[in-house]
Amino acid sequence: MDVPPLTIPQKHQTSTNSLLTLPTIRSLLGDFPEDYFFRLESERTKFRRQYIHRLEFPPVRREITDPLVKSFYRYVYPSHPILDERTFLESYENILLRGPAPDLESALCLVIFALGSVASDPAGPEARDPSWAPGIEFFTPALEILTGEMTWFSKPSLLLVYGLIFAGIYSAFIAQPFHSWKLIHMASTHVQLLLPRYVIYSNRTGQVLIS
Prior knowledge:
This protein is mainly alpha-helical. It contains ten helices and two strands; from the N terminus they run H-H-H-H-H-H-H-H-H-H-E-E. The longest helix is centred in the C-terminal third of the chain and has 18 residues, at 177-194.
């Protein structure tokens, strides 16, 4: 049969978002934002509320957590200066005031506490034990919040990216490289959702920021 080959035109797209931008469809339905369906899905919270179990949070009191925050900024932050200190300290003060909750602000603070704990631990022979994990009491509830938010989808959130990155760094500290890689990979995946919606720039100190 003399049938011409099936060819796909260049820049051809068939996603629902792309179809809504076609002139014919727009004349029938009106104008929709390019990320209309993305916004629609990000607002669905039914399943996200169901995955959070009754988390057990460790005590969060200034006499316990202040030294951990100082340890984080002394030992961890210089190698990973991606978190605006003023913004974090505002979240920290908020957590001290209201207590931790199953939200991203609490998850980030708990991960920072875990990193401060493991970074200030004088790792001796016990560090060879596979169960060695200083700060795990902070890390465990934080990880459940972060992975739950990532699994059940959430609005693009810089807090989620920060939390996943620092959770990956914590996993590297306790010699769990595969877990560390998975968490960093999750963070990079979420960053791809953020990039079209934020402007990235470098300030005079060389830090990479997102606004």
